[in-house]
Amino acid sequence: MKQSKLFAPTLREMPSDAQVISHALLLRAGYVRQVSAGIYSYLPLANRVLEKIKAIIREEHEAIGASEFLAPALLTADLWKESGRYETYGEDLYKLKNRDASDFILGPTHEETVTSLVRNEITSYKQLPFTMHQIQTKYRDEKRPRYGLLRGREFIMEDGYSFHANQSSLDATYLDYKQAYENIFTRCGLDFRAIIADAGAMGGKDSQEFMAITADRTQDPEKWLILGKDVNSYDELPDTVKKEILEELGKWTLAGEDTVVYSDKGDYTANLEMASSQEEATASNEPLQALVKVETPGQKTIDDIVAFLKIPIEKTIKTLVYQADDKLVVVLLRGDDELNEVKLQNYLGAGILEPASEEAVAAKFGAHFGSLGPVGLPEDLQILADLRVKAIQNAGLGANEDGYHYINANLDRDFNVKEFVDFRTVKEGETSPDGKGTLKFARGIEIGHIFKLGTRYTEAMGANILDENGKSQPIIMGCYGIGVSRLLSAVLEQYARLTVERLPKGDYKLTWGIHLPQTLAPYDVHLVPMDVKSEESQKLTDEISQALAEAGLSVLVDDRNERAGVKFADSDLMGVPVRVTIGRQASEGIVEVKMRKTGKTQEVQISDLPQDILTFL
Fold it and tell me: Are 405 and 373 in contact (CB under 8 A)?
């Protein structure tokens, strides 16, 4: 491919509105251009990378027997009304009407569509199991699209669906998909983890996310550097340059919408929303004291109460009130803990969970937030508590009267709890739930998710089969998805590199660019002739390009009439693994080869070039 024919408009400077490095480089390297907020055009370079990702996805799905199909993006709302998600999915759902005033949506996902297909075609357990998947554009009306391709309103996704007559069949396919996804992300060169996750709006029980880890670049600056011209090691750089490097690495927002919790010595990994620990409270042996109501004017927060009453925060209980669908629920936590709303919603099985309104709380408790507690509550209120509340004795908590609190409140004597459950959010440094090591936190980009949906959709939509006994039962489903366009950004977050080179006068220059693994790079080799006007140079360039192509390498030829510095800068931006410069020594049968990964160059005989590049790669 000749670069003069390639639409890849690079930018001289980093775009000022980009907050994460992947977004900045996608724009600067001419990979994408924004059409409107959260909607992008994928230019030729990005499209080539995306096609490589898709090819890997297709190969791994073929290996587990998942056939590819393609559903429409424009969906009738009737199916979503059947499943109940038309009302509960939220404001992210694009809703529209056709000329007949019928309701339609733009598909954010396709569980209802495939369930409808299957219920019309599959009637017997003998036709199961089977799996199919598609790669398609999805639509979600994100309130705040940001970070380029990481959170958009239109995005490319691979979504798979499996159908089963029994749970053991689903379990087997779920493991097949887990292995397929691990193979895909490994082949894409990603540092990732499979973690315990929440199924969320998808429904179902068992769920795992695949998270691409985004590390703090300032903690290991050498990892993110390519040592360019006249720079032999990071240690030899002046302290002023090292400081500049740290500032440049640290100025970009750490991408990743989720916190990954993992053990530093074991295999435990989970999303923060689902993570647990072995952190337990030690029961006190102190004697129970008499319950006392204390005036606490203007003291509303836990910190206020601790300071005002002069009691340890471990002896306080905070009372939270939530609206779970159509009922109020009270949740108690130790004062220094935070509620994990996902754990609470999963326990309750609530479709909608949100903090109760001030009006609803005042009507039920006779007090406002800041003075609430479990003592003397109506019996119809469900009171739940985190496990660590059970160990608290002589607690400080709200008295359900504005400006008053109790001290020396005790479980069973002064208030009752229906059930104790792990409702708290874990903290870094706590003991891993498997007892192996302590918990560490990292940021992560969700790149894949697998679910055991069970009968969540088939029951609601009447997708049944006759089992081996002739009895009708709902089909059991699994659901699987990869954010294909997100994957491109995740790769760039991990493969962005800062080149440091020494200039002739002794100064140093820092330049961001892309380093992509060969499995994803848009081209294998960037061929850069210095004299594009010379017929001899053109002929040699064509011969080298042909030889490389015959060796199975894809080649981009920079035939533009530009200065060498412009060509080299664009080459580093684009992320092609190997750059071959055809310069003055070409007439002697020698060219310069530069490996993007290391920044190092060496002279190579033209006759040996194809084999040497294959060896380098």
Answer: yes
Query: Distance (Å, rounded) from C-alpha 430 to C-alpha 330?
Result: 26
Q: pLDDT grade, residue 586 (50/70/90)? A: confident
Q: Residue 135 carries which side chain, given as an amino acid letter?
A: I
Q: In this structure, how many other beta carbons lie within 10 angstroms of the beta carbon of residue 12?
A: 7
pLDDT tens, position by position, 468-495:
999 999 999 999 999 999 999 999 999 9
Domain shared by 46 and 108, yes or no: yes
Q: Are residues 411 and 451 in the same domain?
A: no
Which 3 state secondary structure label does DSSP give 83? Answer: helix
330-343 exposure pattern, b = at least 16 Cβ within 10 A, e = fewer: bbbbbbbbebbbbb
Q: Is residue 263 part of a domain?
A: no
Residue 175 covered by a domain = yes
* 126 found inside a domain: yes
Q: In this structure, what are the phi and psi dihedrals at residue 535, rounded to the nearest 5 degrees?
A: -65, -40
Write down the pTM of the prediction: 0.84
Strands (E), 399-438: 404-409, 419-421
Q: Under a CB-based contact definition with an 8 Å cutoff, are residues 110 and 159 in contact?
A: yes
Query: For residues 604 and 518, what is the distance between their CA atoms, to the nearest angstrom?
Result: 20
Q: How far apart are CA 152 and CA 39, in angstroms?
A: 6
Q: Which of 25, 6, 21 is nearest to 569 (CA)?
A: 25
Number of separate domains in the chain: 3
pLDDT for position 200: 53
Residues making up the chain, counted from first to last: 617
| DSSP reduced 3-state for 43 | coil
- DSSP-H helix ranges across 188-295: 239-250
Domain contains 505: no
Q: Which domain holds residue 171?
A: 18-216+447-492
CA-angle at 463, arms to 461 and 465, nearest 5°: 160
Q: Is 323 exposed, middle or buried (0-12, 13-18, 19+ CB in 10 A)?
A: middle
pLDDT tens sequence across 84-108: 999 989 899 999 999 999 999 999 9
User: Do 49 and 152 reside in the same domain of the chain?
Assistant: yes
CATH number at residue 349: 3.90.960.10
pLDDT exceeds cutoff 90 at 18? yes
* Lookup result for tokens 């005002």: 308
Residue 258: enclosing H or E segment and its boundaries? strand 258-263
Distance in angstroms (rounded) separating the CA atoms of residues 426 and 277: 6
Buried residues in 413-449 as b, exposed as e (16+ CB within 10 A): ebbebeeebbbbbbeeebbbbeeeeebeebbbbbbbb
Spatial separation of the C-alpha atoms in residues 271 and 536, rounded to whole Å: 60
Looking at the fold, whether 205 and 345 belong to one and the same domain comes out as no
| Cβ partners under 8 Å of residue 583, min gap 6 | 530, 591, 592
